[in-house]
Amino acid sequence: MHRTAYLCLVIATLSWGGNAVAGKLALGHISPMMLTFWRWAIAVAIIFAISLPQLRKDWPVVRKRLPILIFYGVIGYTTFNAVLYTALKYTTAINVAIEQAGIPMLIFLINFVLFRTRVSLAQVFGFSLTLVGVALTASHGDLASLLDLTLNFGDALMLIAVVAYAVYTVSLRWKPVIDWRTLMAIPALFALLTTVPLVLWEHAGDAALWPDTRGWVIALYTALFASLLAQVLYIKGVEGIGPNRASLFINLIPVFGTLLSVAIIGEELQFFHIAALVLALGGIAIAEKGKPASP
After folding, report:
1. Residue 280 — φ and ψ, nearest 5°?
2. Each residue's pLDDT tens digit, 228-261
3. What parts of the sequence cross the membrane (predicted)?
4. What is the pTM of this model?
């Protein structure tokens, strides 16, 4: 059971790491909000095409639990990504990577305050190691450069994104007992609906860029992997080992993103890339080994 959850979370974070590379490749080929819109439009078309019979079967439960499913789509799917994309206009990718690494600790805090979920010293140490791995990745191996970082409006926006995804992850404990296709389809639909005003806003500012051929390929990748596959597997991972333990895997995203940049874009492989991956995986292993015993 745990091994399955680990595999789900690794594949999910690998897919999201690829999403970071897709974002880099998208520059000049499709604008951020246009990418967000088509990402969910394609995802909704696919998931509904394979889910209609199951959706009809699950509709009595969906109707009763619609608010939480809408919440997942609006907060977990759209708000986090839209705010993150906007934050990158005002702050650096280093700041965003470091701030995103705060999601696991915030999940720990929310779970402790609301549910008194215990955290062991080993988990804190493991989280710290994964954070160092993220810092190495974000600073390109020069940790001293982090001392020169400054905070601005973009960092304030990232705080909203971090809170949004932490709350989304914790709220998965209340997900209804329905088929995974339905659990993906309904939030995805509302994620799509909430991206419409974002595209209109981008268009109003003359910043919208219709996708060219590469833009469509990137949109298809984000729909299949970053939207459908990653979200379903992340939910499965949280279901398998709980939000506290699953959230640590989030810190693999910038590490995987950097390694994929090396493989796909041709960036040079550095020693700190390997060190960051070892620290991130080692931190997760230590946290898992030292998790609190079940009461």
Report:
1. -65, -50
2. 999 999 999 998 888 888 888 888 888 888 788 8
3. 36-55, 67-88, 94-114, 121-139, 151-170, 182-201, 213-234, 246-265, 271-287
4. 0.82
Residue 93: pLDDT band (50, 70, 90) is low
Element holding 26 (H helix, E strand): helix 2-26
Rounded CA separation 216/224 (Å) = 12
Closest listed residue to residue 9, CA positions, set 253, 183, 264: 253
Please state the domain extents for the chain.
2-289
Query: What is the 3-class SS of 56-105, one letter each residue?
Result: HHHHHHHHHCHHHHHHHHHHHHHHHHHHHHHHCCCCCHHHHHHHHCCHHH
Under a CB-based contact definition with an 8 Å cutoff, are residues 132 and 172 in contact? no
- Block residue for tokens 């608010």: 67
DSSP code at position 251: G
Nearest to 110 by CA among 68, 175, 176, 165: 165
Q: What pLDDT digit, counting tens, does each position of 141-158 carry?
A: 888 877 776 777 888 888
* b/e per residue 189-207 (b: at least 16 CB within 10 A): bbbbebbeebbeebeeeee
- Cα separations in angstroms, 118 against 73, 237, 245, 273: 29, 19, 11, 32
